[in-house]
Design goal:
single chain; 296 residues; Transposase Inhibitor Protein From Tn5, Chain A, domain 1; 10-stranded mixed sheet
Length: 296
């Protein structure tokens, strides 16, 4: 921090976050005024990127000092999360026809209005690290899948060198583009795929269950390499069942592939904690990226 006052404000914000009671807004601090923390977040000229870089360097230093056994894989979990829009801020406003207005961050996606983040969450041993994120900026901008591919490129080589890397994501990222990005890095993708996906012989995935066994190797349309697929019936809240598929670029057994696919839910636990215990359930700051970077 450039000054002792900003350093004190940073400590006050970290105290709110680490308390983890869902009261991370500036007005809840007892050692700094809400106005001083507002200036800290919105007006003072300190580098958000530099804070993130320093934090990441500290994480890598801790991993180097207390290494995880080499036989354990690194799991890269990618998912899309929406922070609901709250408050009235021009920078976070709905898109308008005003050419002079700043590019808004709040968009509609999957029926939700808010700030849409594609998040990379790293699991290595017992360590769980929210590593990076990208903001989806609307139609005409990079898609969530393209943002996810960019996140894969941000993974430090020192973290994955000599280890098995498993990339896990839900059905939204089970695209040809994303699978190719993982396959080209010689990593293992474990992603959900829609039951309507076409095979190279013209059949659909949902036509496989029956006499076929889980763990079957198939060739999907527009993909040159085989994928191992498994399936299960998911019971929904309305007591109806839905046939779900999970695919992998590595030939896992059917039972293990389903078990591995369920471990993707670790990132959902992170989202729940970050939103409801760390106060990230809604966006309400002009420079909200500064608040988010402190959570890393």
């Amino acid at each position: 921090m450039p000054s002792v006052y900003q350093k004190a404000s940073l400590k006050a914000m970290l105290g709110l976050f680490l308390d983890a009671q869902g009261h991370a807004l500036p007005e809840h601090t007892q050692i700094k005024s809400a106005s001083s923390l507002s200036r800290f977040l919105n007006h003072y000229n300190w580098s958000t990127r530099q804070v993130i870089r320093i934090t990441r360097a500290a994480v890598l230093a801790q991993l180097a000092a207390h290494p995880v056994p080499a036989g354990r894989p690194v799991r890269l979990l990618i998912d899309l999360s929406t922070l609901k829009k709250t408050g009235k801020f021009w920078r976070l406003s709905t898109p308008t026809e005003d050419v002079d207005a700043p590019e808004p961050w709040v968009r509609m996606l999957n029926g939700k209005r808010g700030l849409h983040l594609v998040v990379l969450y790293i699991v290595v041993g017992n360590r769980r690290i929210p590593w990076s994120f990208r903001v989806w900026r609307g139609k005409g901008q990079p898609s969530p899948n393209q943002l996810a591919c960019k996140l894969l490129a941000s993974v430090p080589k020192s973290l994955v060198k000599g280890r098995t890397v498993i990339v896990q994501a839900d059905t939204e990222f089970g695209t040809v583009e994303f699978l190719n990005a993982v396959y080209q890095r010689h990593w293992r993708a474990v992603v959900g795929v829609k039951n309507s996906r076409l095979l190279q012989d013209g059949r659909k995935l949902k036509d496989l269950p029956g006499k076929a066994k889980c763990g079957l190797q198939v060739c999907l349309k527009d993909i040159d390499y085989p994928l191992t697929v498994s399936w299960f019936w998911l019971k929904r809240a309305d007591n109806k069942r839905e046939l779900r598929f999970v695919a992998s670029t590595h030939p896992y057994s059917g039972v293990y592939l389903i078990r591995l696919g369920r471990k993707r839910w670790a990132i959902e636990g992170f989202f729940k904690t970050a939103k409801h215990q760390f106060g990230l359930h809604g966006t309400g700051s002009v420079k909200w990226d500064r608040i988010k970077c402190l959570y890393t």
